[in-house]
User: What shape does this take?
Amino acid sequence: MAFQLKIVSRGEPDRIEPLPDGNWLVGRSRSAQIQVSQPDVSGRHLLLHIDGDSVIVENLSPHGAKLNFATLELPTPFYHGQTVTLGSSLTLTLLKIGMEENKTVPPEDGADAAKAAEEGMATVLPDGTSASGSAPADPDKTMIGDAPAAEDKDKTAGDAPADQNRTVPGEPGGNPNKTLPPENSSDRTDAPEEEDDVLKTNVLQTRLATAEEMEFLRKQDRKKAHGKKLKYAAGIGIAAVILFSVYYFHGTPPEKKLTWPLTPSGEFSEKPFAPDEGGFETSRFSVIAPLTRATKAGKTSAGDMIVETAAGRDRDVPMRIVLSRKRSAAFLREDRMVTLQNWIREISSGGAHWNFGQPSEIFFIGRDNGLPCVSVTYSREYENQSWYGEALFFRNGDERIVRLVEIPASERVRGADFIGSFPFLFFAERFIADHWEGGKEVLSGKPEDMLNEAKLLLTKMSPVMWDKIMRLLRGVLVNAVTTRNDDLRERALEQLRKLRKNQRDWYNAQRIAYLKEKALGNDRGADVIRDACAAVFSSEDDLRNLNIRRNRWE
Assistant: This one.
């Protein structure tokens, strides 16, 4: 073991970590061999490669690291006494066992290397000697300049005859027969003798750049990069200004699909309206409508409640919400779809050219047993304008309730999904818990005897008997409403609430058991639970029956 790592963190005691050969990961990750807890240090921040007397440090984090206050970009040698800084308060100092901590052995940087190179290079003078006065060590080295070359022993005695026709600038002509033009003293410029001749060739010399020159080149590169960034930023800014101007002056495009208008804080802009018989506060239900400056509530000519408002992000699409309610003992002994068809026939006979689509399947509002509803789309003419809308139909005891929402037919493409996605009603939980309907088949008998029998069966807590209890209580409620016996009606509703509480508790327990069997992979056990629930909740007027058939257990 040759190295160890000293870890210094602000607010924590210093600690020493030994560094045997191998790779050592520093960070907050559980997989790090050297774990730290500073929040500004990454999970995998630094990697140390230890191999004998060599240590290489490598940064793995986008937050960066500094080696002796210089940014650590590439894998770099790490020497005794050097310090790596991670984040704002963590320093790692490499210590070699047996050496003093303050003694640092850093690598030679570029400037020192250049200096050493310059000191190690001998300056050769034209006479063949170095600047220090000694001859060059290499006997085969060719000196460039005016140094005399070694005499060639094989050279033929005597100089070669000079070219008589060659003229050397600045010398008298060697050819006596060649006539030179007279020299014009005005065309000649006297130059200093020490100035080099322009026809002489300077020999290129190569040397290492100094640290100052490298820093200057880096600054030049940074200036160029900064200038490019400014150009890009200016271009983006100009494009953004153009786009903003086009958006501001031309306005926002219209919505493809209508939405609920919002307040400046981003919440639904809405307002509740309670019917005459009481709304949500009296454990029934209220109409909820988009709120605009022109929103108002009133009565139709038939006495139904009407709310006139507007829909859409810009509140520019007129919308009407009509709530129609009617009580009749006839509703107690007829099926739901018969009551709906009778309403369609009644309203179509009043004119306005009503045109209805096919009724939907039963769906539910609320939780637990739920409130069974049916919807149907329609179009009609009103005040010389075509309207498109949707009617939401449900019953409660001897009451028939229809909620209509309509918009101009020209907005059908944009608004059909909007008016079909919201019930525009919100119900009290007590209303859903007390909900019941009549039907074509109602048990007859003495109401008190039927109520007592239902109470007795309830005490047995047997899910198999729940369907019979519900039929007994429906018969008592039909009799109480027909005879206007409010006391009998309240006592029957009390037993109905007890029944539904037992059903809710038992069903929640079965859901937990089903999900547990599924988690364990016991599909057979889960199927047994599902079949038992389907047998208990066999009525299509119960939301749980629909969830079981669609295999919804969450």
Remarks:
- Residues 108-137, 141-204 have pLDDT under 50 and may be disordered.
- The first strand starts at residue 3 and ends at 9.
